[in-house]
């Protein structure tokens, strides 16, 4: 096994033993290994072998895999931003994520886009600039540090307020995400919120 895979074996073994409220001596006796050997395994001073681990894991009622560090995938999100009709949409979550998170930059516009309705739900947070949110009969301006959440079945539209772009973190459920980021180019042009 690679060295890094074994690095956490000792601490995980100790944690499993302590979770079952067993002393070193109790576990060593039940697993038929010496206290010294068990102590050295837990401290990383003894190399783990299958012959040693099998009786210990049986007593602890765990799998050997439970003691090994799981491979951690690269957590960085590397997806390409897209720009449509002046809006820049930067994905901040993996493509297969159950929650879709984006940084959206809304450009200044002369007129608020047409109010739209679609299935979904959205939560947003203003990073910088001012965001104009028209939601039903409400016409709101959100400042940096303000958040909003709403049902996208309520007629809504968003744009920057003033002469500067507004950058927003938006979190959509899957229906809202599809409507905002995966519709045909012509439809996206008219649905900016």
From TrEMBL:
UniProt keyword DNA-binding present: yes
InterPro entries the UniProt entry points to: Cro/C1-type_HTH, Cupin_2, Lambda_DNA-bd_dom_sf, RmlC-like_jellyroll, RmlC_Cupin_sf, TransReg_Diox_bact_type
SUPFAM superfamilies: lambda repressor-like DNA-binding domains, RmlC-like cupins
Domain of life from the UniProt record: Bacteria
Domain HTH cro/C1-type as annotated: residue spans: 13-67
The entry's keywords: DNA-binding
PROSITE patterns: HTH_CROC1
PANTHER family, per database record: HTH-TYPE TRANSCRIPTIONAL REGULATOR, METHYLPHOSPHONATE SYNTHASE
Protein name from the UniProt record: XRE family transcriptional regulator
Organism, scientific name: Gulosibacter molinativorax
């Amino acid at each position: 096994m690679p060295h890094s895979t074994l690095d956490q074996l000792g601490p995980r073994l100790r944690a499993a033993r302590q979770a079952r409220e067993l002393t070193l001596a109790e576990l060593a006796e039940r697993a038929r290994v010496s206290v010294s050997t068990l102590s050295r395994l837990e401290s990383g001073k003894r190399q783990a072998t299958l012959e040693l681990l099998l009786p210990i894991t049986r007593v602890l009622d765990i799998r050997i895999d439970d003691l090994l560090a799981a491979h951690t995938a690269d957590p960085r999100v590397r997806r390409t931003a897209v720009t449509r009709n002046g809006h820049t949409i930067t994905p901040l979550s993996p493509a297969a994520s159950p929650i879709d998170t984006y940084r959206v930059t809304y450009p200044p516009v002369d007129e608020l886009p047409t109010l739209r309705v679609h299935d979904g739900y959205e939560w947003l947070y203003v990073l910088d600039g001012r965001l104009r949110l028209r939601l039903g009969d409400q016409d709101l301006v959100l400042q940096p540090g303000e958040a909003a959440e709403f049902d996208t079945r309520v007629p809504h539209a968003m744009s920057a307020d003033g002469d500067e772009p507004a950058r927003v973190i938006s979190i959509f459920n899957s229906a809202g995400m599809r409507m905002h980021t995966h519709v045909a180019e012509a439809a996206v042009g008219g649905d900016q919120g």
